[in-house]
Amino acid sequence: MSVTVRFAPSPTGHIHIGNVRPALFNYLFAKKQGGNFVLRYDDTDVQRSKEEYAVGIAEDLKWLGINPDRVEKQSERFALYDAAATKLKDAGLLYACYETPEELERRRNRARALGRPPVYDRAGLKLTDEQIAEYEAEGRKPHWRFKLPNHVEGDPFSFNRTEVHWDDVIRGRQTVDLASLSDPVLVRADGTYLYTLPSIVDDADMGITHVIRGEDHIANTGVQIAIFQALGAQVPEFGHHNLLTTASGEGLSKRSGALSIRSLREEGYEPMAVCSLAVLTGTSHAVEPAKSMEALAEMLDFSGISKSAAKFDPEDVGHLTAKLVHDMSFADVADRLKAEDVEGDEAFWSAVKENCSTVSDAKQWWELVVGSVTPEIAEEDKEFIAQAKDLLPQEPWSEETWGEWTKAVKGETGRKGKGLFMPLRKAITGLAHGPDLKNMLPLIGREKTLDRLS
User: Fold this and answer.
1) Cα 373 from chain centroid?
2) Which of 33, 187, 200, 217 is an S-S bond match for 3, by CB 3.0 to 4.6 Å?
3) Annotated binding site for ATP: which residue ranges?
4) What is the pLDDT of residues 297-319, one digit of tens each?
5) How far is CA 61 from the centre of its chain?
6) Is residue 241 in some structural domain?
7) Domain check: are 401 and 424 in the same one?
């Protein structure tokens, strides 16, 4: 069976770098194995899910270079979930509970006070028909819990240590004791499904072979394996990677907009810089910019992923972006420069790219070439600039013109080093820094240079 993985974001906000890490791990793993990647929107929460967010997620993934082989929406698959819930109810594995959130919290607090784990005691299984009728008369609606196989057969109240094992493709052998967990709620009192059941049903129906996700799901895995087995479904392989945090160690949140892909894109960062940092941070591989998804897939090694949280510093995205930009050919950026109204050719790009942190930075240098500049000429340099202007060579100009001109100016004025070059740079560009003038001068041309030296 070919590898099939999935990424299942909730379209309730913009995805951030923390969401993209598992998306990339899944996508790169599938492509390296010649498999398939499914984008599956977890939009069962119809109140919070919005189409605009689904569209935004698709745009962000496309910008990153993630192209799904299949796209699904859970909101269109409720019939499958209903059938699975009915199957579990008929098997006596999904049972009704009527406690309110406040009542459940009081029970948990009482268990803690007595030194017991706050595990649900399966009180719902003890309800008589009369008690259920009373709750219904009060207007209570039941939520539905899955009965974990963590007890003596025939006696659901005799909890036994029940270990679930799996060979995690990232973390190695893992064990979860089901007796330490409460029976999970699969269906809310309002009839809506929590994440668990739809996810399992879809994984089984779509032939998902590997579930690769954050380490915060490790405890859930034992429960989910039990549900897969109760439904008679093939259990996929699981892999749990470390989580990304902000540079200060805080968790990432869609609601705060922290490091959203949209914001990183708007900052002009390169998608492969974002992908490289999201994938390689917190691994044994050096964090360096990959030029393509194929190259990044070759760098991905699950055995080298740390078990500690990985801090993501957005400044590092800038550093990696700059490295990529400096290595780009004119062919790589020609269309993007046109979109920025930059009409410079290969000579222009070669002249300025080392001074660009992003491709869009080229626009400021293009404006310096073709636009107006406010020369910066100090009072004590006015005579020097006038002498230099008189020595300005005739066109045509080449990369040698700057050296020839400054050599002549040095001979005439006796200036050298910074005292020679800086006043000329400030007069011609209005700046104390920038691309090498031996490359820029031919682009600016003699007429504009004369005008700026005036």
Assistant:
1) 40
2) 33
3) 254
4) 999 999 999 998 888 888 899 99
5) 9
6) no
7) yes
